[in-house]
Amino acid sequence: MLQDEVVVITGVGPGLGSKLAVRAAAEGAKVVMAARSADVMKQAEKDIAAAGGEAVGVQCDVRRPEQVAELVETAVARFGTITGLVNSAFGHPGWFDLLETPEKAVRRSMDIILFGALNVTREVVPHMKAAGRGSIVNVGTMTTRKPMRGEGGYAVAKAAMATATQFLALELGEHGIRANQAVMGWLDGPGVRFYLKFTAEARGITEQDVYDEIAARNPLGRIPTDDACAGAVLYLLSRHASEVTGAVLDVNGGEYMPA
């Protein structure tokens, strides 16, 4: 699906990011991973190499333009070009009502989610223009479409990125560059497993009880796994989606169905 593509993925942690990296490589892409911590990337590099793929991890804080420039320079030096970008780096300001969320925490989320994505996109686009094609996928969240209490500070940053995605699609289309958004719902991975644990303890019920409550909200009757949801992002990166730009793909097991 991604043969001959060179894909940069930010926010490569133990959840969706690492799954994206491994699966993109399995589909034939050369993968450049970015994260502030190298631990997960090192393991992903080993897994990808063991499967016969190619990947490199670069420690990078997307808020810092000089580190972003180094990330992109590494990608081009190693693989010659960049044709795909997944902006999945994020920072969560904590589970508070919006007006009770510290302003510093909201600004940090905006700096990572919106301005960080713009930093990386700004550095990557010239190489996509030179290649004559490219695909940008911004990872969104269902809570911008179905508000969930305690997610306000996180959601406003993701909503800003959603609007940015539309403008990138409008402005970059003439260069053969597409921009789309994959809006994730609940992702059964490390983050949700932590949520199940602390919610179960707070309510005096089992983790399975909490899981079942969440799973019952969608027609598929399960919390989609981060590994399974990675496929939607890979599709948007691929040439199978050559005519798709400015689109929003909801990936949530049917919990939210847009009109």
UniProtKB/TrEMBL annotation:
It holds the Pfam family adh_short_C2. Keywords: Oxidoreductase. NCBIfam families: PRK07890.1 (NF005909). Belongs to the short-chain dehydrogenases/reductases (SDR) family. This is SDR family oxidoreductase. The lineage of its organism: Bacteria, Bacillati, Actinomycetota, Actinomycetes, Pseudonocardiales.
